Amino acid sequence: MSSFGQGKKRGSGANNDDVGIMARLSRAVSNSPITDATKRAANDAAYVSKKLLKSTGKAAWFAGTTFLILVVPLIIEMDREQQFNELELQQRSLLGSSPPLSPPK
Fold first, then answer.
1. Which superkingdom (predicted)?
2. Is 3 a member of any domain?
């Protein structure tokens, strides 16, 4: 005899079988080694991303403060020098002397 026709009747018990199948399938998927490996890989990626973001923030802070302390005063001084040179050139042209062709070195 075959067991083909010996299944349960469809009716009130069919929903219980579906829930049981879904629960077993869900349990089988959550307990599989592939799922465990995927979870470990996701946790490792999150850990590395967090560390990278933290170190990138530290590097950005270091670069920003270094720029403010060293480069901004240099830019301000270069701008003052250029304004001084333009003022000197303007005064020379007002006094009648010809401006130099190239700036002195």
1. Eukaryota
2. no
Does residue 8 fall inside a structural domain? no
Domain span at residue 75 reads 13-95
CA atoms within 13 A on the CB side of 74: 6
In a domain, 2, yes or no: no
Radius of gyration of the chain (CA): 39
Number of structural domains in the chain: 1
Q: How far is it, in rounded angstroms, from Cα 45 to Cα 7?
A: 47
Q: Which two tokens stand for residue 80?
A: 């003052």
